[in-house]
Amino acid sequence: MANGRYALITGSSRGIGRGIALALADDHVKVAIHYYQNEAAAKETLAQVRERGSDGVLVRADVKDPAQITDMFGTVKREFGKLDIFVSNARPEASEFFQPPLDITLKQWDTAFDSQAKAFLVGVREAIPLMGDGGRIFAITYAEGSRTGGLQPWVGMGSAKAALESLVRYFAVAVAKRGITVNAISPGWTEDSVLNTLPEQVQTLIRNWHAGGWTPMRRLGTPADVGNVVALFCSDKARWITGQVIYADGGASLMNPEVPPEIQIG
Ligand SMILES: NC(=O)c1ccc[n+]([C@@H]2O[C@H](COP(=O)([O-])OP(=O)(O)OC[C@H]3O[C@@H](n4cnc5c(N)ncnc54)[C@H](OP(=O)(O)O)[C@@H]3O)[C@@H](O)[C@H]2O)c1
């Protein structure tokens, strides 16, 4: 492919990953669209990337399997020759890990950790040799799940995301001398993502809660909102920010969970 910047985004067949792919395509970045089971959705993302005047390739891997991650980076190296941006975004379906602490199986626990912390460990170590100075690495996290305990069946993913955020800090120091930044982006609840697979009643409760004030901007996020934040951090002007967890949530993380929202919002 022609010169320019190149990105690999895991889980970019749909949801937030697709939003990131399209935002980077708007900035003329060529994108490796990664998928696991939805090849048709990945092709649709690639078509939308091309509509934006950029280009890319499809790559497939189960991010729970380190050997498949290594193979995926082999394909990226063959196709692109280098990598400027790596976004670790993929996350298995909730049914594969969603169990409270007293019930979660070790397989479910491993699914969470293998797909997040271990996949990031392996992915970053594969990405670094392909990156020139000034590369950009992102982990997509859910920081509320890393620091709270209320949503009990989230224990596996919440713990795995906490480990992922910790890895972000260690890698940020490890590659800082090359001007490569490593950050975690933490979206709030986002439309056109896993949300839309939940029962309609649950979706309505979540939308109303946020539109009613828990998100001060009074709406849920969109994949484009999150994609734009990643694109912003890919700018050279963001080169001095590394090792951080960035909340991209319309202010939801600013609310105090101990005080009813009716009292907090004006
Ligand atoms: N949605 C939210 O409200 C929200 C909020 C905060 C953080 N996040 C984080 O944002 C990220 C994306 O979430 P989302 O809701 O946009 O996801 P999503 O719509 O459920 O899409 C999941 C993506 O991950 C891929 N995937 C699933 N299992 C995989 C596996 N074993 N190996 C490789 N890829 C796999 C899927 O590929 P296929 O399509 O091929 O199956 C798909 O591209 C996640 O890390 C999530 O924790 C989401």
Structure explained in plain terms:
This protein has nine helices and seven strands; from the N terminus they run βαβαβαβαβααβααβα. With 266 residues, the protein is of the alpha/beta class. Strand 4 (85-88), helix 4 and strand 5 form a beta-alpha-beta unit. It binds NADP nicotinamide-adenine-dinucleotide phosphate. NADP nicotinamide-adenine-dinucleotide phosphate (NAP) is lined by residues 11, 13-17, 35-38, 41, 61-64, 89-92, 115, 140, 142, 187, 189-190, 193-195.
Task: State the main characteristics.
266 residues, alpha/beta, Rossmann fold, seven-stranded parallel beta sheet, 9 helices, globular, binds NADP nicotinamide-adenine-dinucleotide phosphate
Contiguous uncertain segments of 5+ residues: none
Residues in helices, as a percent range: 40-55%
Domain module tally: 1
Q: Tell me the name of the CATH class.
A: Alpha Beta
